[in-house]
Amino acid sequence: MTCTEFIAQLDDLLEDRVSVKLRADLEEHLRGCEHCVITMNTTRKTIEIYRSHELYELPDSLRERLQKAILAKCKKC
User: Fold this and answer.
1) Range 27-36 contact pairs with CB under 8 angstroms and sequence separation of 24 or more
2) Average pLDDT, the chain
C-alpha cells in the first residue's frame, strides 16, 4: 500500500468503515510509515477538536508564521 492509497482510505478508517482485510492492510502500512502515522494522528485530533468545539489558541509566534506562510502562498497564485 502506498501513502496515497492510505490517505484515500483514512476517513473510512477513522470512522471505522473499512473491512477487516483493508484494516489489516492499513495497519501494516502504518507499521512502516511514520509519515502516515503522524497524518492519521493529526487528522484524528483535528476531528476531535472540531467535534468538541474546543477553542485552541495558537501561540503568537506560530500564528504569525502561519499567517506569513498563507500570505506567501496566496501571492504565488
Assistant:
1) 28/1, 29/1, 29/3, 29/5, 30/6, 33/3, 33/6, 35/3, 36/3, 36/6, 36/7
2) 91
